[in-house]
Amino acid sequence: xxxxxxxxxxxxxxxxxxxxxxxxxxxxxxxxxxxxxxxxxxxxxxxxxxxxxxxxxxxxxxxxxxxxxxxxxxxxxxxxxxxxxxxxxxxxxxxxxxxxxxxxxxxxxxxxxxxxxxxxxxxxxxxxxxxxxxxxxxxxxxxxxxxxxxxxxxxxxxxxxxxxxxxxxxxxxxxxxxxxxxxxxxxxxxxxxxxxxxxxxxxxxxxxxxxxxxxxxxxxxxxxxxxxxxxxxxxxxxxxxxxxxxxxxxxxxxxxxxxxxxxxxxxxxxxxxxxxxxxxxxxxxxxxxxxxxxxxxxxxxxxxxxxxxxxx
Length: 312
Prior knowledge:
The protein is an alpha+beta fold. It is built from eight helices and ten strands. A hairpin with a 2-residue loop joins strand 3 (about 90-95) and strand 4. The longest helix is centred in the C-terminal third of the chain and has 41 residues, at about 235-275. The chain is rod-shaped, with a radius of gyration of 43 Å. It starts with 12 loop residues before the first strand and ends in a 16-residue tail after the last helix. Mean pLDDT is about 80; it is low at about 55.
């Protein structure tokens, strides 16, 4: 079964403290070696034997151990120093095994044999390309989105996928396509049938949830995801524009007729209540016809004055 890797703190020591320790060891060892070499040169100048210089086998072994310690310990330890910038993490790997992550900014020292891989924890934007896809009604549309994200688990981002930045880009475009085919571009009533254009906030939240589910494996958190471009494809844009204009005209006409009928009804009720005149059915029909023509006409109505007839 594959082991799931999760971020945990790595072993580290303050780099300045360790630098002071290495400097002291180097200075003491260097002074001792320099002192012995200087004494050796003085003895050679006087023609003495090397045995008089080293003082026996014990001194020779001590000097050899000291030189070996400086070479084997001090020099490799220099590779253990590293620095961490703010909003940055360093992932440590020892002989192929993950041994922890350092998130605290500063100058640190750790095992000199580990390899160090930097991971940025800064907030980043991804602007997707404009994608052409069919919506829920089969209409071709153009859609794009901007995704705000950051790494929250450095271990997953380094070891779960080959390239987490490329993974974010590919999965973002896949999530946008999946979202577009679930909703129509536009609907007459967004309360009954949600659409991409009618409920932008809900669409943004749905896209964020879709992306978070896809990017969870990489240790990435999606802070925000929102559509940055939404339009009909050029081949049907003009036709859809005419359809929208026709729909708007029908809706406007419907509202005008409903208002005119209400006004006519109110006028007839007022005349009946105040008994201003007695209208038979024929005159009521004529009055209703005239009022509807005046109220629903696109042009200004021209009044016709009735002055009576020439003959009684």
